[in-house]
Amino acid sequence: VGVLVGALNSWAMELICEKVIASAGQLLSPGDSLRRVFEALSSGLLLPASPGLLDPCEKDPMDASTSLSAQEREDITASAQHALRLIAFRQIHKVLGMDVL
Q1: CA 7 to CA 78: how far, in whole Å?
Q2: Global pTM?
């Protein structure tokens, strides 16, 4: 999951979180919001063949994740898939880097 934090800039991460959480259509708990973000990233949202992450602050359509290489995009996708598996099997503490409660 460290790949997610290191490769994505804060603006791209904020855009992803806002778009994913706002599109839920209902209020989400923090845990559900986190899971939904990982679901979006693991679906290939950032892969080269995807529509990309459009920056709403730019006049012309521009991908906010243009600074990422193809390998970084694949690494982020794979890390999100792994994190989602951990969350599904009640091991979110590993995703968050915490001790078991």
Answers
A1: 13
A2: 0.86
